[in-house]
Amino acid sequence: MEAYLAAIAIIALIYILLALGLTLQYGLTGLINFGHVGFFAIGAYTSALLALNGVPLVVSFAAAALLAGLAAWPIGLVSLRLRDDYFAIVTLGFSEVVRIVITSEQWLTNGVQGIPGIPRLYESLGGFNAQAAVLATIFAVTLIGAWMIRRIARSPFGRLIEAIRDNEEAVQALGKDPAGFKIQVLVVGAALAGIAGAFYAHYITYIVPDQFIPLVTFYVWMAIIMGGVGRVSGAVVGSAILMLFLEGSRFLRDLIPGVSEVEMASVRIGVVGLLLILFIIYRPQGLMGDYTKR
What we know:
Radius of gyration: 19 Å
Low-confidence stretches: none
Helix content: over 70%
Number of helices: 12
Number of strands: 0
Largest sheet: none
Mean pLDDT: 88
Distance between the termini: 40 Å
Oligomer: single chain
């Protein structure tokens, strides 16, 4: 039971890292990123491939964050020329391009067969001790990420990107150039997603392209909407709620007789979707949002 709960906590913390990056990009800056999973995939494959070639894990994690951040830079340049809705489509297309490249470049990624045998973190500890050490490490990294996003939100930089979110034309009228700030935000959020991907790869130890579908991005969107858009606490609470329902819905089969495993997957997605609808209707600002507003 302890191992199961630790596994759930590790995956939840990975989702919190993803949600923190999206909170910076959308919650604070207003950038609608539907391709977050693409940076997640880049981080996972970068760290896995480097580690399998003997690169120390610390270096492979740093490379995962760096490469994911660099991949966001051209996306940031695109954002300067597109309205929000078109930018969302471009980012969604970017994540699918990443997945197609991973699938087709078999010489590098092994294609649809995936990459097995990825080194585990703290493998020498063995058993539950290794899992506990992984949990502690991800928890510490998540705390640092949350602290960093909170510091950004309360800094002059944070107030500026919030102004860009609320009224970009007014920011331009004051002599500020939103372009550079948007690119910085995208790079930092993508780097967080890259680190989350590295943790995911080294925890699961086997990655395939089908693990990085757009549904992962929309799970993260669900998390920040349920928790409260633009709030670090919202990213944390929303991710915890998401994992609670994703894992709790596994036991629905015991309550609904005559439903196959394949059908239950659709039922689970339906339950999570219903939850999101109820939040939008009755708590649109999220659990951690302003309770004085509806």
